[in-house]
Amino acid sequence: ATGKSTSINELAEIFLSTTKKLNLKPIYKKSIPGVVIHNSTKPIKIKQHLDFISTIDLKNGIKNFVNHYTS
Description:
Blueprint: H1 8-18, H2 43-50, H3 58-70
């Protein structure tokens, strides 16, 4: 939780580069009513309510996740 918004395009780019599947591209569809379009977190609230402090940035977290589940 960094307090910085991350777009679906950014997440897709991180996953595709981490998995070395750069030939894949996102498929864009019409949005689904009721689905959250924008969301972000506030690190201070996470610390207060969950007593959690993130020590890994998003890219490294995704890299660790992918490596864990593909090894």
